[in-house]
Design goal:
alpha/beta
């Protein structure tokens, strides 16, 4: 793991979506993955001060993306910008996300250039 690379946590119950996101991001970022909310809790607890952002699916079984955001809030993990994955940014999801200062919504299907631009912008990459 290269120390100067930004570190991202991808949380999605869909292995296909995690694979797509990893293929888009792994050249520029160090990637951690969780297949659901419980895995996210574990990684956030162990890696919290080392993560630069979290990419989080809203709709997951057992523990959804909003419950992960609530966990972060309750545990004082407010330094990690969250990017929510959704198929549709409904008004209800947008309003709920505002309670947690969500950085962005990433809409499926994924657009490689858009995702990279948004992450780099939010994480303070210097344009080339």
């Amino acid at each position: 793991m290269l120390p100067d690379r930004k570190k991202l946590l991808i949380v999605d119950d869909s292995e296909i979506d995690r694979t797509i996101l990893r293929s888009i991001l792994e050249e520029e970022f160090t990637i951690f993955e969780a297949a659901g909310g419980y895995g996210a809790f574990d990684i956030l607890t162990k890696q919290n001060e080392h993560l630069d952002a979290i990419i989080l699916d809203i709709s997951m079984p057992f523990v959804d993306g909003f419950e992960v955001l609530e966990y972060m809030q309750k545990n004082g993990i407010s330094n990690i910008p969250a990017f929510l994955i959704t198929s549709e940014a409904t008004q209800e999801n947008v309003e709920r996300a505002m309670q947690f200062n969500v950085a962005e919504f990433l809409v499926k299907p994924f657009d490689r250039d858009d995702i990279l631009r948004r992450l780099k912008s939010r994480l303070g990459f210097i344009p080339e």
